[in-house]
Structure formats: structure tokens, C-alpha cells
From TrEMBL:
Alphabetized GO MF terms: protein serine/threonine phosphatase activity
Originating species: Weissella hellenica
Ranges for domain PPM-type phosphatase: 2-241
Matching Pfam families: PP2C_2 (PF13672)
Protein name per its UniProtKB record: Protein phosphatase
């Protein structure tokens, strides 16, 4: 899969606590990963960098070739990284409370395994329609699922900023985990919450489909996010499955 990504501080922040990268294992399988240091907490940038670099470097040493093995690998390494972040935060008082969101995709020729914890998102664009794959782990979404607020209310509810699951802080690091098929001409899009705060799904879809190259779509989405306010760091990763891979 062809992949492009970029990250930007935004217009309101002085530092960037997002981190993004792509890694390839010993069997040639890609792993894309996006993290967002949570809520400006102490060491959020450290937690995000740790999560991406540690999980990514371990992936580069792996020989995973099946979906089932990828699922178990992600569970094991996300749990292990959570322990590492918690222990590091306890060791250094300046990092106390550090945490990060995480969305990660292991990309096979015809299937993709996705794991997420927090409110960084993964989408799939197929046949000119975009669908969010991940569930936001924040208070507003939990209230929505319980029927306590409506979809319209969830968009502006203050609880959308309160993360209910994250990597770090506690020993509970349960991530959502699932697999989906990949079809020719599919796009995957992974992002921190900085972009959806300012751009609608319809705008995102139109930019991705209209751009001649996915790298241009990434740039345009970040630019539009900043023009619309840029209240947070913004990170965008787009993958395009141009054709069948044998």
C-alpha cells in the first residue's frame, strides 16, 4: 500500500505532541501508527514518541505473516508499552501522568488489522464513501452510546475532550481490535483528533478523492484544518491500495 503522512503543530499550540510513522517487518508487512499525547498532560509528547518508536521498532524485528498472529502481537505489545509508559512516569516526576492515544494498522495485501485506544481515528474510503472504523474513547461518545445525549449534542459536548481510555496512567490498556478487508482502490485514513475538530467527513472525503496524489491530500487536509482554526496539533496519514497485490 502506498502511504503518505505529515504532522503539524497547529495554530494554537506551541509544541507538537503527535507522533506518526510507518514500519515494515521482516516479512515485508507494513505497520502504520499514529499517537497523540493526551490533553497536554505532563510528558504527553514523550508518551506518544515512546509508543510509536517502541512498537514500531519491535515490529521491524517481527516475522508476522497472518492476521491472527498480528492481532495477538498488537495486544501483547500495546499492553507491554502501557506498562513501560506507566513505569517511566513513576520513575521521573516530571513525566507523572503522561499518556497517549494510539491507532495502529497492520496492512496485509487483502486485509488490515486495526487497534485503537483513545480518540485518534481510522477511516476507510471505499467506492467514494467514507466510514469511521474506530470508536472514540471519550466521555461524549460514551454518553451518546448510552442514549444520554444526541449525535448533534455529542459534537459540541465538553466531554469530547475527556479521554476515557488511554495508553499510560493506569494498568488497564484495553484497546479495541478488529480486522477488515482491503479492496483495490481503497483508502485508509488515520488521524489525531485535531483534524475532525475542524473538518467534516464530507470535506475530508472530497479532498482525498480529488487530490492527484495522497501526499497532496495530506497537505491539503492539514492546511484546511489550520485555516479553520488549528486549535490542536494535527496529524494525517493516508494509505491507498492502488491494485491487487499477489
Amino acid at each position: 500500500m502506498k502511504i503518505a503522512y505529515a504532522s503539524d503543530t497547529g495554530r494554537m499550540r506551541t509544541d507538537n505532541q503527535d507522533y506518526v510513522s510507518v514500519f515494515i517487518n521482516q516479512s515485508g508487512i507494513q505497520l502504520a501508527i499514529v499517537a497523540d499525547g493526551v490533553g497536554g498532560q505532563n510528558g504527553g509528547d514523550v508518551a506518544a514518541t515512546m509508543a510509536v518508536s517502541h512498537i514500531g521498532n519491535q515490529w521491524e524485528q517481527a516475522h508476522i505473516i497472518t492476521v491472527d498472529d498480528a492481532k495477538q502481537w498488537l495486544v501483547d505489545h500495546i499492553n507491554s508499552e502501557n506498562d513501560t509508559i506507566v513505569q517511566t512516569a513513576h520513575r521521573y516526576h516530571t513525566l507523572n501522568g503522561m499518556a497517549t492515544t494510539l491507532v495502529v494498522a497492520v496492512i496485509f495485501a487483502n486485509e488490515m488489522v486495526v487497534a485503537n485506544i483513545g480518540d485518534s481515528r481510522a477511516y476507510v474510503i471505499r467506492q467514494r464513501q467514507m466510514r469511521q472504523l474506530t470508536t472514540d474513547h471519550n466521555l461524549a461518545n460514551e454518553l451518546l452510546q448510552e442514549g444520554a445525549i444526541t449525535q448533534d449534542e455529542a459534537v459540541t459536548h465538553p466531554g469530547r475532550h475527556l479521554i476515557t481510555r488511554q495508553l499510560g496512567v493506569t494498568e488497564d490498556s484495553k484497546a479495541d481490535l478488529f480486522a477488515i478487508s482491503i479492496q483495490p482502490n481503497d483508502y485508509i485514513l488515520m488521524t489525531t483528533d485535531g483534524m475532525p475538530k475542524h473538518i467534516s467527513d464530507e470535506e475530508i472525503l472530497q479532498i482525498v478523492l480529488a487530490a492527484p496524489e495522497i501526499s497532496q491530500a495530506v497537505t491539503q487536509l492539514i492546511t484546511l484544518t489550520n485555516e479553520a482554526g488549528g486549535s490542536d496539533n494535527v496529524t494525517v496519514l493516508i494509505g491507498h491500495q492502488e491494485s491487487e497485490v499477489n
